[in-house]
Amino acid sequence: MFQNKKTSIIILTYNNINYNQICLESIRKYTTLGTYEIIIVDNNSSDGTREWLKEQTDIKLILNDENLGFPKGCNLGINAAEKDNDILVLNNDTKATPRWLDNLKACLYSNEKIGAVAAITNNCSNYQAINVPYTDIEDMIDFADKNNISNSEMWEEKSRLVAFCMLIKREVINKVGTFDERFTPGNFEDDDLCMRIVDAGYKLMVCNDSFIHHFGSTSFKSDYAKFNNILKTNAHKFEEKWGFNSNSESLLKFDIINRINEPIEKKLNILEFNCGLGSTLLKLKYMYPNAMLYGIEPNRNVAKISEKIIETITQDFEENYTMNFKESKINFFDYIIIGNKLQFSKDPWKLLTELKKYLKPDGYIIATIPNLMHYSVIKGLLKGTFIYNHDSILNPKCTKFFTLPDIQKIFEECGYINPYIFHYSREISQEDNNFLDQICDIVGSNMKGFFMSYQYVAKFQNNTFIDTQT
């Protein structure tokens, strides 16, 4: 039983004594006695933290004579942990809440394939932060107490986790190792560990039923320039090791996600081109638990990880317009998400036509398409620049470009119906608005909307369903 499994809570400290005190006091208050040990690794604090830590009788304390950074410090803590304990890495600028650890453990041990889990919070990247109703930390506990009711329907699979509060099975640590110290002083070491966990065949989960408060990156706040330099350096180290950028390959495409509206219980078959690490598909799986996920990912380094999460193929569909999944996918998909593939296609008409046979008779295709008529493109052209302007909404590698009428025409010519085209625009400056008014003086004021949209998300339905009814 997971209730009997002990947890070693690893906390690094470097000054910020007030946060350190809040963190430890909250753990003692809201964590079942006897189910955990606390290991503090202090990275040479100078604000009284070390002296205060020496007074604490219920912790294991490691005092470093220099700041070793996050990965090395965590590894010292992990190595000092009881050998059978699971490992929970916790930031010192957090405040624990009722049932926080119990709920994490319930998810972690609900399936032998789950290797690590993480909490949600008010301040975090990787979509692990939620909007909170409280404005005062004193009101936070009431909110967390209501949120932290163990519920398996609130467990969400992810392609990576942020280690501000991350619980890892001991067997996983033993199998994949600890943090890679090349990422010292910190950042991307958690992404790297997550990739190793997934590559070893385990799942990563976010527990939306375990909320803790996170004050947020206190160790780096004093020097943002240094922080940004470390981010860039370690992002490069990660790419050298894995062959891709973990941030860009795990972005959630909400413009796509929001275009799928189905009954929650419906069994959906969803395919995504350029699926990355599968993050968007996993979000759809969380929304539609009976969905089956499939991906096409041309980057073999990315696909090596994503294929452990979803069924993934790496082939270029446009080479022979086939899909080499384990089983035939003819008339199979409810949704095919092609993203920006139209702009890079050698023959968009043939691409759309060939995809129809893989859609169910009433299935949908969804594409994201930048607007060639956006005022910024027109303005750039008038100044002598086009796609090579670094501020352009157009990708320099695009080979095809579309306006709104073009989008409607190409889908209709390829046999799609029931268009849903969603327009995305931003606020513009007064200067740009004056520019638009001058353009509209020439082409007509009714055209202003065509210049305002920087991107369209086009959702069209396969017309085979209609044809079979006639």
According to CATH, the homologous superfamily of the largest domain is Spore Coat Polysaccharide Biosynthesis Protein SpsA, Chain A
Count up the helices. Answer: 19
Q: How many β-strand runs?
A: 17
Summarize the biggest pleated sheet: 8 strands, mixed
Strand content: 15-25%
Structural category is alpha/beta
Characteristic key phrases:
470 residues; alpha/beta; Rossmann fold; eight-stranded mixed sheet; 19 helices; disordered C terminus; glycosyltransferase; Glyco_trans_2-like; Glycosyl transferase
Short description:
With 470 residues, the protein is of the alpha/beta class. The protein is built from 19 helices and 17 strands.
Q: Could you explain the architecture of this structure?
A:
The protein has 2 domains: 2-248, Spore Coat Polysaccharide Biosynthesis Protein SpsA, Chain A (Alpha-Beta Complex); 255-468, 3-Layer(aba) Sandwich (Rossmann fold), CATH 3.40.50. The protein has helices spanning 17-30, 49-54, 69-80, 100-108, 137-147, 170-176, 189-199, 224-242, 254-257, 279-287, 300-306, 317-320, 341-344, 348-355, 375-382, 404-413, 430-443, 448-452, 464-468; strands at residues 7-13, 36-42, 59-63, 86-90, 94-95, 114-120, 155-158, 165-168, 203-211, 213-214, 269-273, 292-296, 311-313, 333-339, 359-370, 416-424, 455-462. It is an alpha/beta fold. An 8-stranded mixed beta sheet has the order 3-2-1-4-8-6-9-7. The chain is globular and about 75 Å long.
